[in-house]
Amino acid sequence: MVKAIESCVHCGFCLAVCPTYNVLGEEMDSPRGRIYLMKSVLEGKIEQEDAQPYIDRCLGCTACVPACPSGVQYGELLIGYRGQSEAQRNRPLLDRVQRTMIRETLPYPDRFRLAAQAGRIGSLFEQALPEQMRAMIGLLPQQLPPAQPMPEIYPAKGPRRACVAFLSGCVQTVLAPDINHATLRVLAENGVETIIPRGQGCCGSMMMHIGETPLAQQLARKNLDVFPTDVDAIVTNAAGCGSGMHEYGLLFAHDPAEEQARAFAERVQDVTVFLDSLGFRPPQPLPQPMKVIYQDACHLLHAQGIQAPPRRLLGSVPNLTLLELNDGGLCCGSAGTYNLEQPEIAGELGRRKAERIIRLGADAVVSGNIGCLTQIRTHLEAKNQAIPLYHTIQLLDLAYHGAI
Amino acid sequence: MSLQPQTIADVQDIVRAGGHLLPRGGGSKPGLSTPTRGTTSIELRNLAGILEYEPGEYTFTAYAGTPVAEVATELARNGQYMPFDPLLAGHGATLGGTVAANTAGSGRYRYGGVRDFILGVRFVDGQGQLVRSGGKVVKNAAGFDLSKFMVGSLGRYGIMVEMSFKVFPRPAVYHTLMLRYGSLADALQATFRLSAAPFEPDAVDLEPQPDKSCQFLLRVGGLESTLPDRIDRLRTFFNDQSAAIDQAHILKGDEETALWIGINEFEWTPSQTDAVVKVPLSPRQVVDLDRAVPDSIRRYTCAGHVAWLAVSKVELLADTLTRLNLTGLRLTGEPGDVILGSRLGLSMAQRVKQALDPAAVFGEA
Amino acid sequence: MNEQKRLSVIKTPFLDALREIYPADRLLAGSVQALAYESDALTAFNARPQAVVLPETPDEVIETVRLCSREQIPFVARGSGTSLSGGSLPVAEGIVIALNRLNRIKRIDAETRVAVVEPGVINLDISRAAEPYGLYYAPDPSSQSICTIGGNLAFNSGGAHCLKYGMTSNHILGMTVVLADGEVVTLGSASLEGVGVGPDLVGLFVGSEGLFGIALEITVRLLPKPERYCTVMAAYDDLGTAGDAVAQVVASGLLPGAMEIMDRLAIKAAEAAVHAGYPPDAAAIVIVELEGETRQVDEEFKALQAVIQASGARHIHIAKDADERARIWKGRKSAFSAVGRLSPDYIVQDGVVPRGHLGHALTEINRLSREYGLEVANVFHAGDGNLHPLILFDGNQAGALERAEALAGEILRMCVALGGSITGEHGVGMEKKAYMTTMFNETDMDTMKAIRMQMDPGLIANRGKMFPGD
Ligand SMILES: Cc1cc2nc3c(=O)[nH]c(=O)nc-3n(C[C@H](O)[C@H](O)[C@H](O)COP(=O)(O)OP(=O)(O)OC[C@H]3O[C@@H](n4cnc5c(N)ncnc54)[C@H](O)[C@@H]3O)c2cc1C
Ligand code: SF4
Ligand code: SF4
User: Fold this and answer.
1) What are the domain boundaries of chain C?
2) The pLDDT value given to residue A60
3) Of B331, C335, C359, C458, which has the most beta carbons under 10 Å away?
4) For A164-198, what is each residue's pLDDT tens digit?
5) How do residues A289-346 score in pLDDT, each as one tens digit?
């Protein structure tokens, strides 16, 4: 943490890309301001409690990291700081209830499914609930799709070019099980055999980001145990999980499992990166021309620097034209649990994103993260726009099967 | 009465002695430099000469009374020029007068006006103190920029005695493309279309004609080897727009040079009796202004950003300018009211006046 | 009770009056909030204001300034706080007027090439908005992705591409300002001639470092995007030779759009930050960019190549496409901040020397660097003779800052002695006010003070800046 703080030269370059600064235009809600506040807390100049609202408002989107010429590792700083401060902080009751709900449900698909269904019922009372809880409920889909169990192995189509292990994730399994199945099919089309290790669970990255370090470790440890080491890659289709798992080394710093965690992290690849480097086999042409906006998920673009591969995959589909939002990959406001914890800012970011999308005009919006898709759908719907949304892999899957 | 200081110290002595003073350079803009009764003229023509000129630096420093023609000749010897295109060089305009009156010609379109090329100034304030502002290097952000403030100051805030300028390498050759449009509005449209085009003309002038048509002049400078191609492209560009009523005509060589010298020397003004008035404006205001002054000879330079009017009834013009919320500067004619129409920022100017010349030795703000 | 709540009950007549103007979320009076605003990009100075306000309309700014004037409370306007000279450093007993929410682009008139913007608009956002019309806003400080047009105006900021078309001042045509005593004046116009008649008040206001008042609305000039860029990167074995090369290009009669130098340390830092593709083993690189009509640029390039080849360059590289050009510039523009990778602290100097003395000045800086035992990285606007030595030090070491400042002082004095200036574009601010008297004599200084007194009799606007002993 000290290193990250010391290398900040207070130049302000990161302000331009920070979503909260874009919305609020105040120094405390900028990366530079937050670093300064964290520094001051650590130096004992100010109370942690007073700085907390501004640290809480950080989306953790890490857009500020690649923007920083001085190489400040803001993401690491934030995780370290939140881990440290969470232990000491005194949250108001409502916050605590909500966090407990998040902690106890999100990482566990079965519980989340139940909670989500309960949430729908709860929406009957939505007006009576406080703002934060309402935000949680507003994001849930009207109807949960039926659960679709995953196989243990999904074979390659034709000769096998590679073999990967797949992280099936948690929230996404419940909200959009189809994305996982689409992933298996697209991998298979490309000659990839996929293993879905039994006993795997949530990757823990969300918990890591909100400062619940012990729980995150507990979840991650399980995955270290069950994932095989003799595969070409550990593949994920969830941006947040991918970036979180890349940080396993950090999560287990000074732990006996550190070495193992680092090796694991090195094998993790987003499915688009894996396919791109393997040599992607383009699907058949779309039946008719289609204009598609690719929305960068923060956890792909900023946290992992993944910009070109998904665009290359999509661009290789005949008849598909990619449109660019040109907003510097500004966060849509989803950011993990953010739209639950900071509904106002998240709402503003979602609105802005939706407006840009509408202005650009497209036949579909594609993103590599379910959180983004949910957030954007909500805000497009609020503007009565029924533009279809897909996960990158879903659109590719549909293209292979001529189903679009 | 007129005094002719030989040195900066002389100027200081004169100012300390008080009275009502009006500096005068070459007298090429009589409306601004002719003293009225009770005012003493300070002739600066003896405070002349280039003090420093380092071609490799693209800068020079000279006394305020130096004729711009002299400077231009010296610069030309080194392939350089004053891109703000000082007016009335042939009438003896000096550097000081050019700065004080802010008289840049059509060529200012390309790189900027007097304000964009002045780097520093030394002037004698209302108490006879010698003050320096700015510097001699091309870039300088130290202190308030009084050298820019002096541009257009009309000698009313201090007597400039020395100034430093930035200069540029001069284009080797110029060609001028001439087109005729059916109306001023059409010609303006042509400049609008030019606005996002990649061409880099040095001057874009519009000359409304008595028959309501409008002459359109486009001056382009550059390397001899590339100019024909560039002009050709321009011609094609305008032919494609096809609003012009005549074929484009291209001027080169001495004829071309003479045309622009004539413009800068006000040869387009019909008679000595008319006053030449400069009016900065937005091209959006050109048509309104033009409609209000049908009897005058007009030309619009800088793609319609500056109007030059030769008028016989100055009072009428003053009313028109006030109505259109524009300001004009009368350069020639009898001394008297030279700033016509509405005045912006006057109260801020008065504040500076208080600081530089509280006793109003140099007249009112 | 948390701080926000504690504060809402603190009552002073001044704060109460501010509460009349601003809702609670736009009046920041907490110590944590003040702390966030205590420095700009020069962290060697800090001061916590008693409050920060976030106006959303020009009228709120006017009301605030009038209130400050009535109560004689000092105020500091702030853009993005990227000043490198302590320009937006708050005054402890005063307030900060943060203009970041006044960030509307009000009008773009493409056909007459002007834009009207609010002061909190980010420099680059003007070019982004003008892009669909084929236009751009020319001055490009390295900080252009975040610095505001108001801050640019206050400092007459420059950038790499100011050689041909000049600095901020050359691109501001008009503005509406509120002077420190609350009077609102409109200066200049939407004409390319700007003020045009009467003293150039726009020219006077630009570069006045926030000491006269606050710009509320600004009319800027736009330029058509050059048809062609030709970006040349030449590597040298020696910094002095690179400096001489720049002087030779200028003397050759070419007028490039930009001409920059980076030395070994700066190259290393920038390369680590953005992988610009700079030659890692060069002692210095010169970046020269020609811009303009294709035919003209291609022809000029031939001449440029000859000059560079004769200048002792070890290696010459020409950007092959727009992407590579963008990378080269990104590296250059990231260089200051990137030096943060090499050292915990640095101060940037901004002196100007006549171009013919560049080689000499760089050699001298090198010597001073050895003498003081402090590393100096150089990355600067060579075409303008505008040096930016970055003096590296570790603020945790006792006396290190003082040594760095002493070295900086020697460099500034050298610049003045060579006939240059103490600042080309970063302004005097806090940092260089002690050196104003090396450039200006007592009369010059008194004259500037007298003008300031007229604009701001209570000395409440940006008190403590520009004038020594203030
Ligand atoms: C990494 C880095 C690179 C830089 N590169 C360059 C460069 O290449 N060229 C260059 O010139 N500068 C450069 N700078 C310096 C800085 O970015 C400029 O000075 C910029 O203009 C400051 O803008 P700002 O919005 O951050 O203003 P601030 O720092 O917030 O304020 C600067 C000054 O302007 C005043 N001010 C702000 N708004 C107004 C207003 N509306 N009216 C009146 N006064 C106002 C403030 O009071 C203050 O005195 C660089 C800075 C950094 C950190
Ligand atoms: S860009 Fe980096 S060095 Fe600059 S303020 Fe932001 S974090 Fe600090
Ligand atoms: S992580 Fe995102 S929200 Fe947080 S400071 Fe960085 S850019 Fe801003």
Assistant:
1) 3-98, 105-224, 228-417
2) 86
3) C335
4) 999 987 666 667 788 899 999 999 999 999 999 88
5) 999 999 999 889 988 999 999 999 999 999 999 999 888 888 998 866 677 778 888 9
Q: CATH fold of A153-277, please?
A: Rossmann fold (3.40.50)
> How big is chain A by its Cα radius of gyration, in Å?
21
B145–chain C nearest CA distance, Å:
5
Counted across chains A and C, CB pairs separated by less than 8 A come out at 110
Whose CA is closest to atom 1 on ligand 2?
A68
Q: Is the pLDDT of residue A122 over 60?
A: no
Helix, strand counts (H, E) of chain A: 23, 9
Domain A2-86, CATH among 1.10.1060.10, 1.10.10.1100, 2.60.40.3140, 3.40.50.720: 1.10.1060.10
Whole-number Å distance between alpha carbons of C26 and C390: 36
Q: Which fold has domain A282-400?
A: Rossmann fold (3.40.50)
Q: What is the ipTM of this complex?
A: 0.96
Measured in angstroms, the CA of B146 and the nearest CA of chain C are apart by: 6
- Whole-angstrom Cα distance, residue B75 to residue C195? 28
Q: How far does Cα A274 stand from its chain's mean position?
A: 18
DSSP-derived pairing of the beta strands C376-380 and C345-348: unpaired
**Of C92, C65, C94, C96, whose CA–CA distance to C80 is shortest?**
C96
CB contact under 8 Å between A69 and C32, yes or no, is no
Indicate the domain borders of chain A: 2-86, 93-138, 153-277, 282-400
Give the domains, in start order, of chain B with CATH numbers.
Answer: 2-169 (3.30.465.10), 173-264 (3.30.70.260), 275-346 (3.30.70)
pLDDT digits (tens, 9 = 90+) for C346-366: 999 999 999 889 889 999 999
Q: Which residues of B touch C440 (CB under 8 A)?
A: 132, 142-143
Residue having the nearest C-alpha atom to atom 53 of ligand 1: A11
B partners (3+ CB pairs within 8 A) are C
Average pLDDT, chain C: 93
Which among C37, C80, C274 has CB closest to A15?
C80
| Three-point CA angle B127, B128, B129, nearest 5° | 95
Candidates 3.40.50.11690, 3.40.50.300, 3.30.465.10, 3.40.50.1980; correct CATH number of C105-224? 3.30.465.10
| Residue C355 contacts B where some CB pair is shorter than 8 Å | yes
Q: Going by CA atoms, what residue is nearest to atom 2 of ligand 3?
A: A61
CATH of domain C3-98: 3.30.43.10
Which of A10, A21, A54, A359 should be substituted to probe chain C, the one whose Cβ sees the most C Cβ atoms within 10 Å? A10
All residues of chain C having their beta carbon less than 8 Å from the beta carbon of residue B232 are: none
| The model's pTM | 0.91
Q: In whole numbers, what is the pLDDT of chain A averaged over residues? A: 84
**Tokens at residue B129, please?**
């103190």
Q: Which ligand has its closest atom nearest to the C-alpha of C213?
A: 1
Contacts of A381 (CB under 8 A, 6+ apart): none
| C247: closest CA of chain A, how far (Å) | 30
Domain C228-417 coded CATH 3.40.190.10: no
* Ligand 3 nearest-atom number relative to CA A67: 7
Band of the pLDDT at A105, cuts 50, 70, 90?
low
